[in-house]
Write a structure and sequence with these properties.
Elements lengths: L9 H13 L4 H53 L7
């Protein structure tokens, strides 16, 4: 599909050309890459947020497991008459 953009500021075009050259791309290839990246940004942000949420839940679960294990350790020591380790 073809997209045309008119009346772009010459300074912006110059900067786009410089950025494209730095990446070894033509202006068209650079802009195509930028437009395609822009089109998926919301989905990427959603996925990043889902990963962050999963990370937070995992850390919370690990903390609760650690607390439960510490409680079981203390209970074990009380049941078998062992002193708490210092």
């Amino acid at each position: 599909m073809e997209i045309k953009v008119r009346n772009v500021c010459p300074v912006a075009v110059s900067k786009i050309d410089r950025l494209a050259k730095e990446k070894g791309l033509s202006r068209q290839a650079f802009l195509k890459e930028q437009i395609e990246t822009l089109s998926i940004m919301k989905e990427v942000e959603k996925q990043e947020q889902a990963i962050d949420d999963l990370y937070d839940r995992t850390i919370d679960t690990m903390q609760r497991c650690s607390d439960a294990m510490a409680k079981m350790y203390r209970t074990f020591n009380k049941l078998f008459g062992k002193d708490e380790e210092k």
